[in-house]
Specification:
By secondary structure, this protein is an alpha/beta fold. It is built from 15 helices and 9 strands. The chain has a 5-stranded parallel sheet with strand order 2-5-8-1-9. A two-stranded antiparallel sheet has the order 3-4. Strands 6-7 form a two-stranded antiparallel ribbon.
């Protein structure tokens, strides 16, 4: 018996459902997600790495109590790895068994060998044929890492939620999956793909939102540590770096500092743990030492001003 997924009736309900999964979504993002769910349109999320794009799909699947099917994109990804391919080893074995038994009928064998029994279903086809009761969330992650030609494979799926297999015909989805596509914008996604999607850019959060994320995801962190970490990361993002730390790195760093029993920041522990936030040697060397001290002082001064404003 087919089950239908209950979509939150309002944007506020969606925000609350995501908050229960420890995801802090601002209203603009929540509106885009709600519209994508209501209109059954794919949602394209762009933004720097580590700002929470992939997490949206994971949280959405949990909130809707449905499966998450993920296609991780990479250079060279093609239809055989994204949609389907034939199990050639099993087909060859079947032919040999038929030959050995003397029952090989070329016409019948051709029909049987290219049937669902010998079809290997990759993520896109599994999402279209999903039989788990509720439509799944299909995550097409980092589409910008795939070749531009691969986007052509997506157009039929995103337009009509169907895929054509020459040997079997067209397979249509009875109930379309909820589709989330992410891009780090290492290259521009083609306009034909964008036109089929709703769009939202996820930016780095301001202090208040990032602090809320830290306290939500790591509730055991001391308040002063959470404030200083958030303020310091905000300062760090203003530096000339090859790769800026994302929210994911903020959370990793906070968790590491809690594991080290830190209750507040000091320059030495920052220098010792910079590799949690920065992944390039040149970036680490450019901020270690005096720049770290200067950024920590500015972060604390901003914290003092915020405290006075609240007072």
């Amino acid at each position: 018996m087919k089950q239908t997924t209950t979509v939150p009736a309002t944007v506020d309900e969606l925000q609350q459902a995501m908050r229960e999964q420890l995801y802090v979504a601002d209203r603009g993002l929540a509106i885009s997600i709600h519209l994508a769910l209501s209109l059954k349109r794919p949602l394209l999320l762009e933004g720097e790495a580590g700002v929470g794009k992939t997490e949206v799909a994971k949280v959405l699947a949990s909130s809707l109590d449905t499966d998450l099917i993920r296609l991780q994109c990479y250079e060279g990804l093609d239809v055989n790895h994204a949609v389907y391919e034939w199990n050639y080893a099993r087909q060859l074995l079947e032919i040999r068994l038929l030959e050995a038994s003397g029952g090989l009928d070329r016409g019948a064998a051709a029909r049987d060998l290219f049937s669902e029994e010998f079809l290997i279903k990759r993520p896109l086809l599994r999402a279209l044929e999903h039989d788990g009761g509720r439509p799944p969330v299909l995550l097409i992650d980092e589409v910008d890492r795939a070749d531009e030609e691969f986007e052509g494979f997506l157009l039929e799926i995103l337009s009509d939620f169907q895929v054509t297999i020459p040997e079997m015909g067209t397979i249509r989805s009875e109930e379309p999956p909820f589709v989330v596509i992410t891009s780090n914008r290492t290259r521009e996604v083609h306009d034909a793909l964008k036109r089929r999607c709703l769009y939202y850019w996820i930016d780095y959060p301001d202090f208040q939102k990032e602090y809320q994320i830290v306290t939500t995801r790591i509730p055991g962190a001391p308040r002063k540590l959470s404030e200083e970490v958030t303020a310091f990361v905000q300062e760090l993002r203003t530096a000339e770096l090859y790769k800026v730390a994302g929210v994911a790195e903020t959370l990793d760093w906070t968790a590491a500092l809690v594991a080290l029993d830190q209750t507040e920041l000091d320059p030495s522990v920052i220098d010792d743990t910079l590799g949690i936030m920065l992944k390039y040697r040149e970036d680490i060397e450019s901020v270690r030492g005096e720049p770290v001290r200067a950024m920590l002082n500015r972060a604390r001064n901003r914290g003092t001003r915020r405290g006075r404003a609240r007072g």
